[in-house]
């Protein structure tokens, strides 16, 4: 007999986002249908531990990007400066806790005196947490880690990166598109890097009717920390209007 994660049986204080959490837990459970009850229990425990550890986080932005970005690269500086401005504006910063863009964003949060969070992942080639974390938690399962990013973020900031970054970006878009989570700002950093992809989406996907124009509007783009902050804040303000409307 296979088992899956049941949102109604995860013992955690859901706060004011109970319905959203149940949707997210159902999504997390869709990644798992196995005949190993002990493993299901371990995953349930990992979710509960993640929720309990990250419960102190209120307003936060998750920053994604390449772990390979060098400290001397302009993308490192852009991620650090943007996270610093977000931190000064009242946001905590959440990353994957590793090097590259993740380190840059956590470093920017520390520059601003904001809460700096790392959600690391246990890998065969061990990824050490970067030295700029106030709160660090290591997950065994990618989808549990992803659940924490989505649950505790008010927005996603996507710096240049590779397949992992693209995976994180597109899964967030699918969750918004399908109504599994509320719309929140998803901001791409550096139009010269992302511009070709956006043109392809508009030309091929929208041109062939594979996605709607509304779906394209889920993605914002910014070239400066100020533009990124403005995009994040505008979308959060719009969401607040929707929730009271």
TrEMBL record:
GO cellular component, one term: cytosol
Protein name, as recorded: Unannotated protein
GO molecular function terms attached to this record: hydrolase activity
UniProt feature coiled coil, ranges: none
Gene Ontology BP terms: cytokinin biosynthetic process
InterPro entries reported for this sequence: LOG (IPR005269), LOG_fam (IPR031100), LOG_family_nucleotidases (IPR052341)
């Amino acid at each position: 007999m296979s088992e899956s994660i049941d949102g109604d049986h995860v013992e955690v204080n859901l706060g004011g986002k109970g319905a959203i959490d149940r949707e997210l837990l159902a999504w997390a459970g869709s990644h798992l249908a196995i005949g190993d009850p002990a493993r299901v229990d371990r995953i349930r425990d990992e979710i509960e531990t993640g929720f309990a550890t990250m419960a102190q986080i209120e307003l936060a932005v998750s920053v994604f990007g390449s772990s390979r970005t060098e400290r001397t690269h302009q993308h490192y500086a852009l991620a650090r400066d943007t996270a610093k401005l977000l931190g000064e504006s009242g946001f905590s910063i959440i990353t994957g806790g590793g090097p590259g863009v993740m380190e840059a964003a956590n470093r920017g949060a520390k520059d601003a005196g904001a809460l700096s969070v790392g959600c690391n992942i246990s890998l065969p080639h061990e990824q050490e947490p970067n030295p700029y974390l106030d709160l660090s938690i290591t997950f065994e399962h990618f989808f549990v880690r992803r659940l924490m990013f989505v649950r505790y973020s008010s927005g996603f900031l996507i710096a240049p990166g590779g397949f992992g970054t693209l995976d994180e970006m597109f899964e967030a878009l699918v969750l918004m598109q399908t109504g599994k989570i509320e719309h929140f700002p998803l901001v791409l950093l550096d139009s010269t890097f992302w511009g070709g992809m956006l043109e392809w989406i508009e030309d091929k996907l929208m041109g062939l009717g594979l996605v709607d124009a509304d779906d394209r509007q889920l993605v914002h783009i910014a070239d400066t920390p100020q533009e990124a902050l403005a995009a994040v804040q505008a979308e959060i303000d719009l969401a607040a209007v929707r929730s009271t409307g």
